[in-house]
Design brief:
By secondary structure, this protein is of the alpha+beta class. The chain has helices at 2-5, 8-11, 28-37, 56-61, and strands spanning 66-73, 79-89, 96-106, 117-122, 130-139. The protein has a 5-stranded mixed beta barrel with strand order 1-2-3-5-4.
Length: 143
């Protein structure tokens, strides 16, 4: 009698409930109570993983690329041209090859002189060609 009125959907068992996701409330009641119980103040607006410790400038400079090279020109105002040499093994001929590239580095105080061996670090673009900053003197030109 009542069996004839039932459809196939009614006779199928309900799918099993999915396991709860870690870190989420188990039910809607838990969501409502957790929202009511926790009110964020102005000091809590930043999530815990976004807090900064220490000097922000120091933290930002830790991940910048650095290179060492020889100053080949100081003719521009507050700019030094640094020649950086890299040595690599040629993949086919198995011979060491030297390549040089010139970088324009910002030298605020004009400390670099021709022939000095210096350390430069990557920074924001300061002009069309200048993306590096003089960081420190490694050694002065002998003589």
């Amino acid at each position: 009698m009542s069996d004839e009125n039932q459809t196939a959907e009614d006779t199928m068992p309900a799918p099993p409930a999915a396991p709860p996701i870690p870190g989420t409330p188990a039910s809607a009641e838990a969501v409502a109570t957790s929202e009511a119980s926790t009110e964020l103040g102005p000091q809590d607006a930043t999530p815990p993983d976004m807090t900064f410790t220490g000097d922000a400038a120091d933290a930002a400079s830790r991940h910048r690329r650095t290179m060492t090279g020889t100053v080949i020109s100081t003719k521009m105002d507050k700019t030094a041209v640094v020649s950086v040499q890299r040595v690599f093994l040629h993949p086919k001929y198995r011979k060491y090859v030297r390549r040089r590239k010139h970088y324009m580095a910002h030298d605020e105080h004009g400390a670099c002189q021709l022939g000095d061996f210096v350390l430069i670090e990557e920074c924001r673009p300061m002009s069309k060609h200048k993306h590096w900053r003089f960081k420190q003197m490694v050694r002065r030109k002998a003589g």
